[in-house]
Each structure stands twice: as structure tokens, then as C-alpha cells.
Amino acid sequence: MTAPGRFFCADAARERGDAFAGTAPYGTVWVLIEYRRGWPANGYDGLALDPGTKALVYSAAQAHRARILLVRRPGRRLPGEGGRWAVLRHDGSGGLRQQWGGWRRDEDLARIAAALDSPGEPGLPPVVLVCAHGTHDACCAVRGRPVSAVLSTYWPDLVWECTHVGGDRFAANVVVVPDGVYYGNLDAASAVTVVREHLADRVHAAHLRGYTTLHPPQQAAVAGVLARFGPAGRYAYDVVDTVRDQRGWRIRVSDRADGARALDVEVRARRTPPRRLTCRGPADSSALVYDVASIREGRA
């Protein structure tokens, strides 16, 4: 899969056994823009769009703390300008909302700003994003594109390739939005299983990086619960209390199926030795890892 002698961050991370629970970036709003030409290394920021429209969309996204991702369908690139855009939102009550539109001229993208101020439509199927941003990191293309290709044969209407989502060394990365679920360390076979299970509302711990509606220690706690007790629905568990102490965090997780059952999870953080964490970044960096120290069952 990879060329001998060349450094690939995902290969190195697998050899080290890098932990990835608790590595999903926090966020509840995503802006998707279909862009069929080559993607700049810095994604949306590097596009040569109409300056006024580009600034308007960027400012609106910043105001809503939305992440802008360029997307395209897997496989051969389609000719022509424009495409589709979407605003996807995971609201505070757990509602999943989407608003879609189309664009041909740069100025058409200004409608994204208005969409960010509207609630969107509930009940639409999720979007499955596969990071395949090779100009940002080689592993995203080398590992991401085979995954997007196979997933699109099963779910052609749901699957898109996208720009950088974070955690290059965990490629292939798949993000389901607006569910807000990150999966990593996938290949073609495991990706089909993970997405099939996700769409059936069964989240497994094995490839779970985290839920974007939770902060990293909370993500690690829920992943630990799933690892201990087995796969469960996206909303099977709620984080109801988080207490920071000198050793880490004490996180209480409630079971929606049994309202009287609570799980007390202790999470510790540690720094890894400096390592080369991305293909493009030659400097070594230390990563923060979240370990589950204990899980105790109790009553709410």
C-alpha cells in the first residue's frame, strides 16, 4: 500500500499502537461545499473564490462555530463548476438537521450564511464523510480513497470524500454527520462493517475516536463503556457529570435504557514522547492520550 523508505504517519501510528479514543474535534455544525477541482492543502481557505462571498461564508461559519469542509463524490471527478452545499447541525437537544442547496457561481454560496441562521430540516439520512485530502496529508489519500470507493458502492447517496478532519495518523478517517461521530484506523473491509453498524444504530468501540458533542475525556469515557459492555446506540449513554481532580476526571455516564443505572468512569491523561505525527510536519510533537483507569457500576 505504501512506498518503502518513505514516511507515512498512519503506518507509524499503527506500529506504535497510538490510542485514538478522545481525539474527535468538538463541534456541532458543519458546512459542506462540493468542489470538483483540486483541493488546496488548506482547504476552503485556499480557494480562489469571490473575496466578498468567501469572507461572508467564513464569518458566518465562525459565528456558529461551524467547520467548513470541501466535498466531492468518490471516483472520477465530474466536469463543470459548482455543485451542492449543505449546512448540517446537531442541536442541543440531540436533533439532527440539514439544509441543502446548489451553486454555480461563487456568489451563490452566500446562501450558506442564511442557512446557518435557519433551523434546517429534520429526518434526513446522515452524511458519511471520508477524509481523502491528499494535498494536506498523503495518508488521507492513500488510505482514505480506497475506503471511500468501497463505501460508495454500498451507500452511493450518503458517501462523500472530504478535506482535512483532523488526526491524519488515524487514516482512514470516517465522520458521520450531523450525528457527530468520528471513526479511525479504518480500511476497506472494516469501514463497511463500521458504517453498516452505525446506520443500524450500533456504535462499536474498536474504531471509535469519539462523539463531537463531547469533550475529549468524556469521549474516552463513553468509548471505555462501549468497550466494556459492547456496542450500543449513538444516544444509549449520556454524560451527566464531569468532575476534574488532581489525577484526571471522574465522569458519570447514565444508561438511557435503565434510568437508574449509572457508570462512574475514571479517566487519566498522559503525554506521549515527542513523535512525528503527520506526513507533512517534519517536527516531532507530543500527543495527549486519555486512558480509562476504571469503570464502576452504580445507581443513579
Form type:
globular
Q: How many structural domains does the protein architecture include?
A: 1
Broad CATH class: Alpha Beta
Q: Quickly count the helices.
A: 6
> Which class of secondary structure composition applies to the elements?
alpha+beta
Largest sheet: 10 strands, mixed
Helix content: 10-25%
**Largest beta sheet: what is the strand line-up?**
5-4-3-1-2-7-6-8-9-10
The CATH homologous superfamily name equals: Glutaredoxin
Order of SSEs:
HEHEEEHEEHEEEHEHEEEE
Strand content: 25-35%
- CATH architecture level-2 label: 3-Layer(aba) Sandwich
Beta strands, count: 14
* Distance separating the two termini: 49 Å
CATH fold group: Glutaredoxin
Q: Mean pLDDT, as a whole number?
A: 93
The unreliable regions are none
Compute the CA-based radius of gyration.
Answer: 19 Å
